[in-house]
Design brief:
Elements lengths: L1 E4 L7 H8 L6 H23 L11 E6 L4 E6 L6 H22 L22 E9 L8 E5 L4 E6 L6 E8 L9 H12 L6 E10 L2 E10 L16 H11 L8 E7 L5 E7 L14 E4 L2 E4 L14 E5 L9 H6 L1 H24 L1 H21 L1 H7 L4 E3 L5 E3 H9 L9 E6 L6 H9 L4 E3 L5 H11 L3 E5 L5 H4 L12 H12 L7 E6 L9 E5 L1 H11 L6 H5 L3 E6 L4 H40 L8 H31 L1 H13 L5 H14 L1
Parallel strand pairs: 2-8, 12-14, 17-18, 17-19, 20-22
Antiparallel strand pairs: 1-6, 2-3, 3-7, 4-5, 4-7, 5-6, 8-9, 10-11, 11-14, 12-13, 15-16, 21-22
This protein binds adenosine-5'-diphosphate.
The site of adenosine-5'-diphosphate has 16 residues, from helix 2 and helix 3.
């Protein structure tokens, strides 16, 4: 028997390893099985080149639990190790890399294991003793057993093993009892080993018999050794891709399309990405892609490895060229990783373009479920935008789809305003904004439907891309002013008449709500009263709601609307006539008085303006102030008359409520009052 002391300076290396790698204890199983797979692949390779001439035998890797002995055993029929190799690999090399590892990465040790040949030693994270019994493939090799209890002392002795291969036996320590549970081991095998290229057996297949499950005596194989992504695209049918999707995600919607990646140069990358149906909330859809290295599962968080928008895709990426056991910040700056992620972005765009070109109707049909992903990509990745701008679609309120180019052509003639700006009209809801959509349509305009989660961001982005263009929501102004043309329309009411009516309307708009009464000269067939909301304010608020960071200020503002009154509508004219017929004398007297005082005031003020302030005497100043007050009083008393008329006028109230109703903004008590009033008026 050989005994020895491993050549490390740090006596207590295992406690340190345990401590550093604490959060990831479970990966020991991945590391040990990867070693077993490697050893098996090596013997297969040697058999195929003729370097190994014996029977390969059953190459299944076996994982066995012995609860009584508190052991977990991993057995393979790979190349095995000679006494010298055991000494070299397990004592010298691994320990020196352990030292190197500890020196370099004391602070950020989490994922560094396999990278430093520490794979095997991760077994000490969960064991107080590890035995390795191995017999090399070489002719006449004797079986040897290596034992180590976690101190740097080890023993190597002769052992019994009939067949070529290696058993690694872990004596699970007290703190790691979970790894003696069948369920836990099965869970780990499913997580890390589901697609390893060598069959892995754990437990027996069960069968339902006479009211209970019984062993069938057949090995339960936990992995699919030939997952779809490792096969040639030409050998796979659509169903195979669908089947594989189900293997990855047993529940959920069918995906829309897939891309089979297969790159050999300048890096190795295989994988299948699926486009899921994405309806709304992108957050919950993120991070479904699984990352593998030679079929060994590494992580299901590809953040930082692929561009943000691609994390919405599902599927598998497998690349031995992604340095998997290093920190994420290191990953992000890695040249290979950058190349790979650029490549994936390009492939994804090309695939979408191909589908668009080959089968546009199909692409349109799937657009609504795809658009969130594509929009996300366009907003966040310039390279993707460049490609996607050719196939991204805009949907209008008639459910017709257009490319950016097609749509520009469609609206160019009709929707260019007098400043040569092309106005893209849009609605965010076909039902809520129906009256505005209808008006815009009647004017020959086209209206887009932008009701997606990212659409506000998208239009901000598109405005920076499209030249001389602006997006305007249909209800942000009266239809005449959405797209300003040269024509000016004459108002049927004078400015003074409008001022009077403003007070009549103002008194009916509840204080506290932000309604601003404005007059817009519209066609007499247009509505008498309308409600609009400024494009700018609304968009700022929307952005704030989506979490635009510094935009919080806008989010806190109340909604503000314009109550637009159309002076050319006969009903508005009629209201003015009623106002006159009820109040002509008092209004005229007030106006005459106002005129007189105003003249005096203007005269005095004009006199004062010719002098310097110190040349004006106090009595003169008092006179002017007296006139100002008088004017104010005259105006106040006029306002009282107007407001008294306004508050008792049912038509004014009715018109305002109708405008609110058209916007789905009339609710609760106001709505019942409206209904009652309507009946009265009828
Ligand atoms: P790594 O796998 O990163 O090289 P390990 O510490 O896991 O580092 O293993 C060290 C070496 O021990 C391996 O490179 C391999 O040569 C040998 N080895 C480990 N496990 C086995 C096994 N099951 N069969 C044959 N050789 C093995």
């Amino acid at each position: 028997m050989q005994t020895g002391k491993i050549g490390v300076t740090t006596e207590n290396i295992f406690p340190i390893i345990k401590k550093f790698l604490y959060s990831d204890h479970e990966i020991f199983l991945r590391e040990l099985i990867s070693n077993a797979v490697d050893a098996t692949q090596k013997i297969k390779a040697m058999a195929s080149t003729g370097d190994y001439k014996e029977e390969l035998g059953d190459l299944t890797i076996r994982v066995e639990l012995d609860k009584k002995k508190k052991t977990l055993k991993i057995s393979d029929r790979g190349v095995g190790m000679t006494r010298e190799e055991l000494d070299k690999y397990l004592n010298q090399i691994a320990f020196s890399s352990a030292n190197e590892f500890l020196d370099k990465y004391k602070d950020q040790a989490n994922n560094l294991i396999g990278h430093f040949g520490l794979g095997f030693y991760s077994s000490f994270m969960v064991s107080d003793k590890v035995e390795v019994i191995s017999r090399s493939w070489q002719d006449g090799a004797e079986a040897v057993k290596w034992t180590c209890d976690g101190s740097p002392e080890y023993t190597i002795e002769s052992a019994e093993r009939d067949l070529r291969g290696t058993d690694v036996i872990l004596h699970i320590d007290k703190e790691s009892k979970e790894f003696l549970e069948e369920n836990r081991i099965e869970e780990l095998l499913k997580k890390y080993c589901k697609f390893l290229p060598v069959e892995i057996a754990f437990g027996r297949e069960q069968e339902w018999k006479d009211g209970k499950y019984v062993d069938t005596g057949k090995d339960k194989i936990i992995n699919n050794t030939k997952p779809a992504w490792t096969q040639k695209p030409s050998e796979l049918k659509e169903e195979d891709y669908q089947k594989f999707y189900r293997e990855l995600y047993p529940i959920g919607d069918e995906p829309l399309f897939n891309i089979h990646l297969n790159v050999d140069y300048p890096f190795k990358l295989t994988g299948i990405l699926y486009f899921p149906k994405i309806k709304n909330n992108i957050e919950i859809q993120k991070n479904k892609i699984q990352l593998y290295s030679n079929q060994v599962f590494v992580t299901d968080s590809v953040e930082g490895i692929v561009p943000e928008f691609l994390t919405l895709l599902h599927g598998v990426l497998d690349s031995p060229d992604i340095p998997l056991n290093v920190s994420r910040s290191y990953l992000q700056s890695d040249v290979n990783v950058k190349k790979i992620s650029g490549h994936i972005t390009k492939k994804v765009a090309d695939r979408l373009n191909e589908i668009f070109k080959k089968n546009r109707p199909e692409f349109e049909k799937k657009w609504d479920s795809l658009k969130l992903f594509i929009n996300y990509g366009m907003i966040t990745e310039e390279k993707f935008y460049e490609k996607a701008a050719k196939f991204a679609l805009l949907k209008n309120t008639d459910d017709k789809y257009f490319t950016f180019e097609e749509y520009e052509k469609l609206i160019k003639e009709n929707q260019t305003d007098r400043h040569k700006t092309l106005i893209y009209l849009y609605a965010t809801s076909k039902t809520d904004q129906y009256p505005y959509i209808e008006k815009a349509r009647n004017k020959g305009y086209d209206v887009l439907l932008l009701d997606g989660q990212l659409d506000v961001h998208l239009i901000n982005h598109l405005e920076t891309k499209f030249r001389d263009s602006r997006f305007v929501r249909v209800d942000s102004d009266v239809v005449e002013k959405l797209i300003l043309k040269d024509e000016e329309r004459e108002s049927r009411l004078t400015d003074e008449q409008k001022d009077d009516l403003k007070s009549v309307f103002n008194v009916n708009v509840k204080s506290g709500e932000m309604y601003n009464v404005v007059f817009e000269v519209l066609d007499e067939n247009e509505s008498p009263v309308l409600i609009t909301q400024s494009e700018f304010m609304r968009r700022m608020k929307d952005m704030a709601q989506l979490g635009g960071g510094s935009m919080g200020f806008y989010g806190d503002l109340p909604d503000s609307y314009n109550l637009v009154v159309n002076p050319n509508h006969p009903l508005i004219g009629k209201i003015y006539e009623d106002l006159r017929s009820e109040n002509a004398t008092v209004l005229d007297e007030n106006a005459a008085e106002r005129k007189k005082v105003k003249e005096e005031y203007d005269f005095l003020q004009n006199e004062h303006s010719k002098k310097k302030d110190e040349e004006i005497s106090q009595p003169e100043k008092d006179d002017l102030e007296k006139l100002r007050k008088e004017l104010e009083e005259i105006e106040d008393s006029r306002k009282k008359v107007l407001e008294a008329f306004g508050s008792s006028n049912k038509v004014v109230k009715q018109l305002i409520d109708l405008a609110l109703l058209a916007n789905n903004m009339l609710r609760g008590e106001d709505l019942s009052t409206f209904v009652r009033r309507s009946v009265e008026l009828l």
